[in-house]
């Protein structure tokens, strides 16, 4: 304040103050914020999901989506799809992987189904061109070396299985319990094309990890494979599980005691 002598009047005026301490604080806080931001960026790979773990989860989720499509198919037709559709001579023509395309929630798979010609075999002149359009859900992200057109998921096929060739199975026929019965699983080494009416045969199945059967040969290999059960659940099965024990999970009405896994 400035007082004028004799008048008793106080008139405010601007007074300059040293702002340097404030500026210094701003600079210090800015530097600290920058250091913390860089530290956070450096820590992100360790606090976020590991890439291999994320791909493993994606492989598992693909099986869940396939399970939903199988049940949607069952809701419409009253049965699960056959493993394949054959011609009059019994020659396999079309795979279950093609049959369930309209029953995924993504409409692009229905559109892909509409492009498929059922009046020619899977490897006919038109259908062979669809191999390059492999649905993402039929490929495991961890299997980076897979060739174009290949699928990483296969059903187990046999007279005692949920997929028993050309004969469809109802869920009521799975008397072992849908939660105790495997329908399909990871098969990254089998070299099956996604439209090909070929899967893993119960009769020739050896063990988890066999390249012609169920396996998970990719950058995130983890000593086993994910399996889809008839109730839509997905479980991990170790490659150390004996083949005979695993086969009890593959049969739908064997009445066997289900081993722990």
TrEMBL record:
Domain called DUF1559: residue spans: 53-192
Domain of life: Bacteria
Alphabetical keyword list: Membrane, Transmembrane, Transmembrane helix
Signal peptide: none
The protein's name: DUF1559 domain-containing protein
Membrane-spanning segments: 26-47
A Pfam short name: SBP_bac_10
């Amino acid at each position: 304040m400035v007082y004028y002598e004799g008048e008793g009047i106080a008139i405010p005026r601007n007074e300059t103050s040293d702002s340097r301490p404030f500026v210094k604080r701003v600079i210090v806080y800015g530097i600290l914020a920058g250091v913390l931001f860089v530290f956070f960026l450096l820590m992100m790979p360790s606090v976020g999901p590991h890439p291999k773990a994320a791909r493993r989860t994606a492989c598992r989720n693909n099986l869940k989506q396939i399970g939903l499509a199988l049940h949607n198919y069952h809701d419409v037709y009253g049965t699960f799809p056959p493993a394949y559709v054959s011609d009059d001579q019994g020659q396999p023509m079309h795979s279950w992987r093609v049959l369930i395309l309209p029953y995924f929630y993504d409409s692009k798979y229905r559109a892909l189904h509409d492009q498929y010609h059922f009046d020619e075999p899977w490897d006919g002149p038109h259908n062979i061109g669809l191999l390059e359009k492999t649905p993402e859900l039929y490929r495991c992200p961890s299997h980076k070396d897979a060739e174009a057109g290949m699928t990483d998921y296969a059903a187990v096929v046999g007279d005692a299985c949920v997929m028993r060739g050309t004969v469809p199975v109802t869920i009521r026929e799975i008397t072992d319990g849908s939660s105790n019965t495997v329908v399909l699983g990871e098969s990254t080494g089998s070299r099956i094309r996604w439209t090909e009416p070929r899967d893993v045969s119960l009769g020739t199945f050896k063990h988890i990890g066999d390249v012609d059967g169920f396996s998970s040969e990719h950058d995130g290999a983890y000593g086993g494979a994910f399996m889809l059960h008839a109730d839509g659940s997905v479980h991990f099965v170790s490659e150390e599980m004996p083949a005979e024990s695993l086969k009890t999970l593959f049969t739908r009405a064997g009445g066997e005691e289900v081993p722990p896994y």
